[in-house]
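Run Porin through structure prediction, thanks.
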Amino acid sequence: MRKSLFALAALLAMTGAAQAQTSVTLYGVIDGSIEYVSRVGTAPANPVASGTTTAPVGPRFDMPRAGGLSASRWGLRGTEDLGGGWSALFNLESGFDWDTGNLTTAPLFNRTSIVGLSSRDYGKLTLGRQYTSMTDGLIGFSPLRFAATYEPGIWWMGVNYRESNVVKYTGQFGGLTAIAHYSFGTAASVQAAGTGQALGAGETPGSMKDNNAWGAALAYNSNGFGAGIAYDEWHPAPSTTPGNTGRERKAGIAMSYTTGPWKVMGGYRYRDSQFNTGATLIRDDYWFAGVNYQATAALGLQLGYYYSNIKQFRQTPTGVTTNPANPQQVAFVADYNLSKRTDVYIATGYAHNGSLINDGQFTAFLFGYPQAPGQKNMVGVTTGIRHIF
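Sure, done. The structure for Porin is below.
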């Protein structure tokens, strides 16, 4: 009996030691809302072939699958202390449509799937599906905190804002964060399906440039001042003709200043996207500015303005180059915290010369705001509840 008790005590001691060195966390966000949109059309079955919306046209009152402020998700993350300031880490994260429970896109861990090593002194190295350097470096400057519904985040960062087969380094040096990544071949995203680009399936044996991507960013935050600069390059390629790549280049800069309950921010993004023939797919400049105000401990207010100067857009490599009207949008969020984990909100957006969050052919109408033929303005209002676990 004494031996049994001693063995049990030793087992419990070892279990406790293992738990002290290793942690695994289940986490997630569920954000559900009800939305009214003033006037929308019906998206084309093939955005590349036609690119135009059709009737019926009218207001819409429903539940947006993306949620109002955050995309719904769940995930697992963990670390193991290796000693000497080193640790191993992993993160698996899956997005889902809160209103139906369906996966947002395949595969299961469509948002993040990484494993890596982290050092107290030298930074972090991660491998797998993850955000680009540009996304990590600039996302903290978004006026609505990269809100799911009324912030043109995908337009800003590009349809490749998250990539597969990536090796990424992140280093923290006081107030400065340095980030660099390389993708050996990122598969086509759902958002990219309507752009007209010939997109392959990812890594291509014998043709290393096909679908590869790389970028870097620097971000600085100290004493209320923040600044970021980033570059991103991607080479989408058709699977039918390896070695024949397109190219999308983006560069961005942003700044912010925080004092008391106020935070102001603004930024700019350059983009030049080309088909694999060298013809221009889209060339645009994107500007944004915003202000956040923490009115009370529970109530936060966010206001954002977004302007896109679309200089060239071509539907197909042999299509006619156009210079469409420049989209503008204003968005506002009032967010009230019921607790540390639960908040309620109301958000509204007004778009001129386009759809909300610049949704259209270039994003394959994925976000549900197809512009009615001849329409100049669109208004959306959504209210909901978000719980973080």
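The longest strand covers residues 22-42.
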